Amino acid sequence: MEAVLLVDFGSTYTKLTVVDVKNEEILATAKSPSTVETDIMIGLQKAYSSLKERLRGIPVEFTEKYACSSAAGGLKIVALGLVPELTVEAAARAALGAGARIVGTYNHEIGMYEVEEIIAKKPDIILLAGGTDGGNKSCILHNAKMLAEYLSDISVIAAGNSKAREELEKLFSDHKMCYRFTENVMPRLNILNVEPVRQTIRKLFIERIVLARGLKRAEKYVGKILMPTPAAVMQAAAILADGTAEEEGYGELMVVDIGGATTDVHSIASGEPLEAGISWYGLPEPYAKRTVEGDLGMRVSAYSLWQTAGYQRIRKYYTGSNSDIEQKCLLLSEQIDRIPVNDDDFEFDAALGAVAAQIAVERHAGMLERHYTPTGLVYALQGKDLRGVSCLIGTGGVLVKGRDPQRILQATLEGGFGEGRLIPQKPQLMLDSSYILSAMGLLSNAYPVQALRIMKKYLKRIV
Amino acid sequence: MSNTIVLGVIGSDCHAVGNKILDHAFSSVGFKVINIGVLSSQEDFINAAVETDADAILVSSLYGHGEIDCRGFREKCEEEGLSEILLYVGGNLVVGKQEWKTVENLYKKMGFNRVYPPGTSPAAAITDLAQDLKIDLSKLGKVKVS
C-alpha cells in the first residue's frame, strides 16, 4: 500500500504518522522520546520500530516523506527594532508566526551589554527591523554595524527600512555574513507586513538551520524538514479555518497547544470588533496569529505557572486532596519526564492544563478598555475580538493523553471577562485526540484537501 | 530633512473632520503626512515620529482638555531622542473664553514651537512650517499655497 510518512522531531517526543492519502485515513501513529542531544537517529529508529508494530503487518511503501522539527530548543530568534510598540513588536509577531521561539527582543540602538546578552542566548537567526520605509535609518544601520562587528557568525534577516538596504548589504557582505533581505515588516506606520518575513524565515530554516542542528543526516530517512513544528500547527489551523477551493473549512478558529515548557495559542481570525462603536487602536493584528506563553507549561514551567496563577486559580480546577499545590508544582518542574501514574497525578495535571490554557487564551485575546470622554463613554479595543470564533481546538500531551480534556477546554471559556478580555464565547470545543495537527500541517503542503478532510474526520467534538 | 510630519488628535478627543482637512492640506503641498488619527496618546505621536524620522509633530485638540493632554509632551520627546523636533498645537486649546496671548504663552511654556487659535487657515501653519524647516515650498513641487 502506498502511504505518506510524516515526522515531527518534537522537543520531547519524535512522533511519526502514516497517512493513506487516497482513502484519507491515518494508518498508524507512534512516538519515542527525542534524542537530539546524542543522535537524533536513535529516537527515530525506536519510533519507527514501534510504528512497524502498529501497522500490524500491513505492507506499506512510503512514497513521500515530510518532517518538521522543534527539537533542540526550537528555532531561536532574537528580534531587533526601534520602538518597542512598533517595529520591535511587528518583528516579534512575524517571527512567532513563522514558528520561532523568541529568545530576546531589543529596541533602539544596541550596545555592548546587549551584544553579550545576544551571544549568550545563542539565536539561530537575528531578525533586524527598524524604521518605516523612508523613515528612521540610523538605528538599523547602527545595529547592523554592531552585528557585523561582533555577531557576524549568526544568520541575519533584514526586514527594516528599505532605504537602508544598499548600506546594509555592503556591510554584511564585507563581513562575509549569512544574510537575507526581505520587505519591511512595517513599511508604513502601523501597517503590519509579516508574510514576507515569515517566508524568509522558513526558507532560511530549511537551507541553514536544519544543517546546523545536526538534523541533516535524518533528512535521508525522513524527507525534507520543511518547517518548525509550530509553523506546521499554524498551517493546519489555517487550512482548517479557511478550507480549500474544493472543501469548506470551519471558519474562524483557535488552537491551544499545551506543552511542557510553553503554552501556544493560534488564532485564525480577523479579530475585528463584533459591535459598532468600538474603536480599534494599537498595531493591527495578523489574521493568523500565534502567541507563546513561556511561563505556562505542564513540567519545565509548572512552577512559573504556579507563580503566575496562584493557589486560588489552580484550586478551582483541582478536585484532588493534595493541599500543597506549590510543592507539587515545584516537584513537577524538576521532574520534567514525569508521566502521571496515579489518580491524583492525573487530577493535578488536568488542573494545571486548565489554568495554563485559560491564562494563555486570555493573554492572546484583545482587551476592551473604557474611555470616559466629554461626549460620553467610548470603548477602545487593543488586540483581537475573539468572541465570535466558531471553534476552539485543544492539542498537547495533557489533553490527548490525560483523562479530562473537557475540563481543560471548558476552562478556556471561563476566564478573562473581569479584565475585559474578549475571549471566545460559544465556540465548538474540539480535541486533537489522535495528535495529528502538526502532521496535517505538513501534509497540507502537497495534499491540502486530503489534510483538511482527515482533520475533519479525526478531530473529536467535545460536548 | 525628510519633510515628514506626524499629525493627530490628542487625548480622548474624537474630532475627525479637521484632522482630515489638515492631512489633505499638508499632503497637497508635498509634505509626507503620517496621520495617526483621533484618540491618540502622547506616546502614539512620539513613537510614530521616532519610527518615521519625522521633522515635526502637529497636535490638534478640539474638546477643551488640551492643557491636560499636552503636559509633559516636550519632555517625553527629549527622553526619546527627539530634542530637535518641532511641536505645533492648535484648536480649542482651553475651556471657555480666555485671552489668546495667555493661552499661547501657556503652550509655549510647555515647549510647543507654534500655537494656533480656532479658525486658523491650514495655509498659515504650512507657511510657518516651511519657514521653520527652511524649506522652499515651490521645490516640494505640488499645489501652490494661497
Output the CATH class name of chain B. Answer: Alpha Beta
The computed structural class of chain A is: alpha/beta
Helix content of chain B: 40-55%
Q: How many β-strand runs of chain A?
A: 19
Summed up, the domain count of chain A is 3
Strand order of the largest sheet of chain B: 2-1-3-4-5
In the CATH hierarchy, what is the superfamily of chain B? Cobalamin-binding domain
The CATH architecture assignment of chain B turns out to be: 3-Layer(aba) Sandwich
In terms of quaternary structure, the protein is heterodimer
Number of strands of chain B: 5
Q: How many helical elements of chain B?
A: 7
Q: Roughly what percent helix of chain A?
A: 25-40%
In total, how many domains does the architecture of chain B comprise?
1
Mean pLDDT of chain A: 92
CATH topology of chain B: Rossmann fold
Shape of chain B: globular
Radius of gyration of chain B: 14 Å
Q: Radius of gyration of chain A from the CA trace? A: 22 Å
Describe the structure using short key phrases.
heterodimer, A: 463 residues, alpha/beta, Nucleotidyltransferase, domain 5, Rossmann fold, 3 domains, six-stranded mixed beta sheet, five-stranded mixed beta sheet, 15 helices, 19 strands, B: 146 residues, five-stranded parallel beta sheet, 7 helices, globular
Plain-language structure description:
The complex is a heterodimer of chains A (463) and B (146). Chain A folds into three domains: 2-71 and 214-222, ATPase, nucleotide binding domain (Nucleotidyltransferase, domain 5, 2-Layer Sandwich), CATH 3.30.420; 76-209, Response regulator (Rossmann fold, 3-Layer(aba) Sandwich); 234-462. The model of chain A has no long low-confidence stretch (mean pLDDT 92). Chain A has helices at residues 40-54, 84-97, 112-121, 138-150, 165-174, 195-212, 216-222, 229-242, 302-317, 325-334, 343-364, 397-400, 405-411, 437-446, 448-458, and strands at 2-9, 13-20, 25-33, 61-69, 76-80, 101-106, 125-128, 155-158, 179-181, 224-228, 253-258, 263-268, 278-281, 288-293, 367-373, 376-382, 391-395, 428-431, 460-462. Chain A is of the alpha/beta class. In chain A, helix 2 crosses helix 6 (195-212), helix 11 runs parallel beside helix 13 (405-411) and helix 14 (437-446) runs antiparallel to helix 15. Chain A is 39% helix and 24% strand. Chain B has 146 residues and is of the alpha/beta class. Chain B has a single domain (4-140), classed as Cobalamin-binding domain (Rossmann fold, 3-Layer(aba) Sandwich). In chain B, 41% of the residues lie in helices and 21% in strands. Chain B has a five-stranded parallel beta sheet, sandwiched between helices. In chain B, helix 1 links the parallel strand 1 (4-10) and strand 2 (32-40). In chain B, 40% of the residues are buried. Classes of the chains: A alpha/beta (463), B alpha/beta (146). The interface between A and B is medium-sized, with 26 and 20 residues.
